[in-house]
Amino acid sequence: MIPTTDRPPAALDVHRGATSVRPLGPWRLEWLRLTRTRRWIGLAVPFLLFACTGPLMARYADELLSAVGTAGNITVQATAPTPADAMDGYTGNALQLGLLAALVVAAAALTVNARPTLAVFYRTRVPSAARLVLPRWTVVTGAAVAAHAAGTALAVYETGVLIGLPDIPAVLTGWALSSLYLVFALAVTAAVATRARSTLSAVAVTLAVVLVLPLLAAIPALEPWMPSTLAGAPTALLQGAGPGDYARAASVAAVVSGAALLLAIRGVARREL
Amino acid sequence: MSNRTSLWASLARYPTVDPGHPWAISTSGLTRNYPGGAGVHDIDLRVPRGSVYGLVGPNGAGKTTLLSILTGLRRADAGSVTTAVPVERIAVCPDVPDLEPWLTAAEVVELARSLSAPRIPATGVLEALAHAGLGDVAHRRVGGFSRGMRQRVGLAAALVTDPEILVLDEPTSALDPAGRAGMLGLIAAMAGDRTVIMSTHILADVERVADTIGVLRDGRLLYQGATQDLLADHARPGWTVRLREGADRARAALEGQPWVTRVTSPARTVLHVDVTSADAAETGLVPVLAACGARIVAIEPHTADLETAFLSLTSTRENP
Question: In which domain, by residue range, is B149 found?
Answer without folding.
Answer: 7-232
